[in-house]
């Protein structure tokens, strides 16, 4: 549907008779001129996009500056218009919103994951200043999803996945349920087209029967209201397609087994009538155990209120009924932010002052602590996707946690120190393990002990991003303190061996000079590196000696280069800006020169070198990974594994061994297994110079007639 400016003006004036329609007309004309001559992939004039965005914002009840920003949101990014001109023509309020939307889209990144994470960070920063920036971005994404069919297939999937991962959950957390449903269904269409078409066809085939049931139940509900003198409206519908798919997945059902795809909404005048209708419904039809939720007494964090119940309907069908007031319904459909977030008695309301947006405040406060893109996105999805459970403190205060949360999450929600010193927990008066999953209505009491502190095992027990970030922050602080202690001991011990007084050098400032020459900002940073094993004490002491005795170093510099190179100890692996690090090669993937590699800082054991494609790398804490490269300064044999599957024939082992000899490869170990289907498995540990020699060997073995498969062996290889 093509939107016209008059439709936007009519909606704005209908919501607010005194609306500044002149602002909207001027914004429309300005956008039309700025985007003049531009078209979309669909062939439509580009102006159709900002018109649709502005129309969505107007329908949600936003004020005129927001709707105007919707009309202008692409002018700075896609035309020659500057933000100063927007400010001059339409005022600071409109310009700030347009600027916030523009900044989210104008950031170059090295990789897709980093780009997505940084875009979300920018969005959160903009939201913390003015929630309307996100609202424009959501309306922008909704129209882009509606016209996604004009994009190439790979872009369709990428955009749909990001929408499903981030934008739909954000709309949900903001109470924009109508938008959330649309975003989910549109994403579903491109992510799983076969399943989408299957459900669409099934609904189309059964629509006559479903409509008859909906009409029948709706009439019965209206009769209940009328018979009991309750004023209200009743609406019935089939649930949206993605919610049907999720129910099929969670309950392992086929479409023909789905019995609760119909939902009804009863809208009444006041809260008392909500509970009265609930009683009438339960007296008419048998409620399904565990399917009643009272969001009126315990609203969701975004302000959503309603009574939800599922009952066995007149034809044995499960039907969901939602009961709410008109005001609750208005909030549920368009979101709390659209109605009262921005203006109250003519002044701006700060998002961070609203309890309903505590989750946003949490993300905003935490995002600065998580520099790694993967960890940030993991935490964000945890914040956005989980349903809520409501538990009580012993004093009767209600606390909201995501579904699946544990008592340890509850402890950190109460206070960081309560979480850090949590020694045990009682749930409903009984001691339970810290990893117990909490349920609605649980009463949780935390037992603290000042001597108890977080351990790394706690990261496996918590489900909330808040608890995880607090535990990680504590562990980093404690590990740094331990690394400083260990590093100092190592430096002082090695210093005594070569008659260097490290403690004295610290007092005189010479140790700081050595640290700065090694590119550290402080002595502590350098000592931490020693404690972590990423810097050897000998290298620090050599630098300290050079600071204390510069004349001796000058004489040494005059030595022939060959003599200096001969004295160096080199593992064959280099680290940018660092020499002399204790290095070992991981046995799980046995890297050899030529393989893409990555380093893992193991505390107290130096650097562990893995192949970049090692299956263990994705599970390593990102902050402990470091870029490394093959230095090529030492030629020596490297051990690695080859896994051979062969026909169990006479002479196979001899033929394979001959190939090893022809390729000048030494066998360091061999293990043989015989399988029941006439195959033999041979596990070789070999010594090679580099990856080129290894893969040449693999190809030579693979060419033998009795060989079924040859692969490089990695921990976890399965036959």
Helix and strand arrangement:
Blueprint: H1 5-15, H2 21-34, H3 48-59, H4 64-72, H5 75-78, H6 83-90, H7 92-105, H8 112-129, H9 132-146, H10 153-173, H11 177-191, H12 193-227, E1 232-238, H13 241-251, E2 262-268, H14 271-284, E3 293-294, E4 307-312, E5 318-325, H15 326-334, H16 337-340, E6 343-344, E7 347-348, H17 358-367, H18 373-385, E8 388-392, E9 398-402, H19 407-414, H20 416-420, E10 422-427, E11 430-432, E12 444-448, H21 465-497, H22 502-508, H23 510-517, H24 523-532, H25 537-548, H26 550-557, H27 561-567, E13 573-575, E14 583-585, E15 597-602, E16 606-611, E17 625-626, E18 628-630, E19 638-647, H28 652-662, E20 666-674, E21 679-688, H29 691-702, E22 707-712
Parallel strand pairs: 2-5, 14-16
Antiparallel strand pairs: 1-2, 3-4, 4-5, 6-7, 8-9, 10-11, 10-12, 13-18, 15-16, 15-17, 19-21, 19-22, 20-21
Helix pairs in contact: 1-2, 1-3, 2-4, 3-4, 3-9, 4-7, 4-9, 6-7, 7-8, 7-9, 8-17, 8-18, 9-11, 10-11, 10-18, 11-12, 12-13, 21-24, 21-25, 23-25, 25-26
